[in-house]
Amino acid sequence: IWPKNFMDSTFWWMKENSTGILKNVILETDVDFNSGKINVGDVNGSFICNDINIEYMDSMPTVRGINGFAKINNSSVIFEINSGSSNNLEILTGIINLYDLNTDVEKAKINLDISSKNKSLVDYLDLTEINKDNYKKLNEISGDVNLNLTLDFPLLVDLEAEQIEYSAVAKLTDGYFKIIDQDYVLNNLNMKINVEPNLVNFSGAGVFLNSNIEFTGEQITKDNNIVDEIKGRLLLDSYQLLNFIPEFFEETSGSIPISFSYAKRKKDFKFEGVGETDQLKINSQFLGKDLSFQNGKIRFVISPYNEKLSGFLDIKTENIDIEVNSIF
């Protein structure tokens, strides 16, 4: 029922790249009678979307089951999405703006609010032309994620990664992140990740070694390597010392506030921190009575050593000087 020679670029794009049901289609235009001829001016229209599928590029995942509202004119179609899905991602809301449809280089700007498991999100991004290094951090984490994703790119068959302008804000809940190995895991992770073409930064909180942890960090490129740099605070429960140096202590109480840094490259990492021992109390037959931890410091460093880990732990107070080196 589309009028012949009427908004041809928009019509052909819709015909070739979308399927579904349109309701309440409205088209408005200015008509001018000049010298006995009918001249049609700019056209604007709208319709309701029911179960629409949009395949805006062969190399990008199809957006399916779109319900919402759309606006059209001579050179663009804008979908305002209330629901939909794409490759196991649930689309909560979003806008798909297909513009410059009357030019040689058609373009798309997409903004989606997405809910999914983190693995499903990574699988989705793997299907795009976005540089995989730029969302590597997401690939290291498991959990539930809400994502705001923005993409702006030309609709080209041979699209290059450099032609995609993108940004993303991911909010992860109830996540899981392996810091060192299966014995050193960050649980109950709540995290916000901002992804830009040249920078990834993040912040969050969780539980590490049964102790509360908060952190901020960024993922950057150094010497052509992707590097994680994280800094934070850990309120370490003192009984964790029994796991590291049980031969020195029988009982502990209190907590140890620790400032830490964590730097991870492709093949190695360094996890180090310094804590204050003022709140620490220890019973030790080996060290004797009347132990004082006021104004004391505890320091640790963990890094890879061949196929194992190298650990250093140092506790210094007024009457204690302990240094432990270990391979584990």
How many extended strands? 19
Provide the structure class. mainly beta
Largest sheet at a glance?
17 strands, antiparallel
Spans where pLDDT lies below 50 across 5 or more residues:
none
Cα(first) to Cα(last) distance is 74 Å
Order of helices and strands: HEEEEEEHHEEEEEEHEEEEEEE
Q: What's the total helix number?
A: 4
Shape: elongated
**Whole-number mean pLDDT:** 83
How much helical structure, as a percent, in the residues? under 10%
Cα gyration radius (Å): 29 Å
Beta-strand residue fraction: over 45%
Written account of the structure:
A hairpin with an 8-residue loop joins strand 2 and strand 3 (63-73). The protein contains four helices and 19 strands. It has a 17-stranded antiparallel sheet. It has a two-stranded antiparallel ribbon with strand order 13-16. The chain is 8% helix and 62% strand. The model has no long low-confidence stretch (mean pLDDT 83). The chain is mainly β and 328 residues long.
